[in-house]
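Page 37, continued from 36.
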């Protein structure tokens, strides 16, 4: 179900592209005789829900959307079969730090008094969460910045994760698969993102970094949205994020019935915006676009490694 699951990053509700009949047939092929009705009951227990159509999408669907979903599924399966790390990444919604109202309800004898207006000038600062979810280990790490969400913040967060966790969990491994949205600090067309990955991750650790981007308007299919971010949002719902330590504590204590474990690290560093990567700098990258949908799929090798042929 994993490659076919999407979810809401705030509520945690999940849905799938597969029909009940199709799921039932696939389980029968695997030796599990189960009816579509039983599949429905089991999906509800797993927090899946029926979805109705909403007129929210403007413009037409990208013609390569389904092809890219199949591509992500195949590459992900290849990495998992070889026991290579697969991570899902994204930036969570920014939060004002201070005694401000936080959406949601919490059990309490008395209501918590908060400021009557959400003025940015009254905030201690902004919490900028950038998440890394190790899909096979079911472990998340959220790096909370206090400056700006930039490509270098994203890449340095990944480098910190690899140094503190990834390299210890996957010893003697030189390949990493990253599943990412198509926009933002880790956008598929963002030069600074690719340059920062080369400089901060591939070169220092000798890693071959493969990146697969989800097509436009499909960010909810990125696993980190419904497997990590939604759980954090539910955990701190109704609680004012009074300080950075409060943000870190709620993040670290987020758990699920499936055994999710989460770490959190505060990064107090200024990440300036507006950094431009020149054509000359881009030519120094050891990057290879894949033959299939190269705009969304590419591999960055350490600069001392010769580029091979990819997928």
């Amino acid at each position: 179900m994993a490659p076919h699951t999407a979810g809401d990053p705030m509520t945690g509700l999940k849905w799938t592209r597969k029909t009940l009949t199709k799921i039932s047939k696939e389980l029968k092929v695997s030796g599990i005789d189960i009816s579509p009705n039983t599949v429905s009951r089991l999906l509800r227990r797993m927090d899946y829900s029926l979805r109705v159509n909403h007129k929210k999408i403007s413009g037409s669907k990208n013609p390569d959307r389904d092809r890219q979903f199949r591509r992500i599924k195949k590459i992900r399966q290849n990495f998992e079969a070889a026991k290579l790390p697969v991570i899902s990444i994204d930036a969570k919604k920014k939060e004002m730090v201070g005694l401000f109202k936080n959406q949601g309800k919490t059990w309490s004898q008395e209501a918590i008094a908060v400021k009557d207006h959400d003025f940015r000038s009254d905030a201690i600062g902004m919490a900028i969460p950038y998440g890394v979810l190790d899909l096979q280990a079911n472990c998340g790490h959220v790096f909370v910045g206090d400056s700006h969400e930039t490509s270098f913040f994203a890449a340095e967060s990944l480098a910190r994760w690899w140094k503190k966790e990834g390299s210890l969990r996957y010893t003697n491994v030189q390949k990493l698969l990253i599943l990412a949205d198509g926009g933002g600090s880790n956008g598929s067309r963002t030069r600074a993102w690719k340059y920062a990955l080369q400089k901060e991750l591939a070169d220092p650790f000798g890693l071959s970094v493969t990146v697969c981007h989800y097509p436009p308007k499909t960010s909810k299919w990125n696993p980190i949205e419904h497997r990590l971010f939604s759980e954090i949002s539910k955990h701190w719902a109704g609680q004012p994020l009074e300080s950075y330590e409060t943000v870190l504590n709620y993040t670290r204590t987020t758990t699920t019935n499936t055994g999710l474990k989460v770490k959190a690290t505060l990064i107090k560093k200024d990440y300036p915006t507006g950094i431009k990567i020149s054509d000359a700098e881009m030519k120094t990258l050891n990057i290879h676009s894949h033959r299939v949908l190269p705009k969304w799929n590419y591999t960055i090798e350490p600069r001392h490694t010769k580029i091979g042929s990819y997928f």
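The chain has a mean pLDDT of 90. Flag for discussion at group meeting. The CA atoms of residues 104 and 238 lie 4 Å apart.
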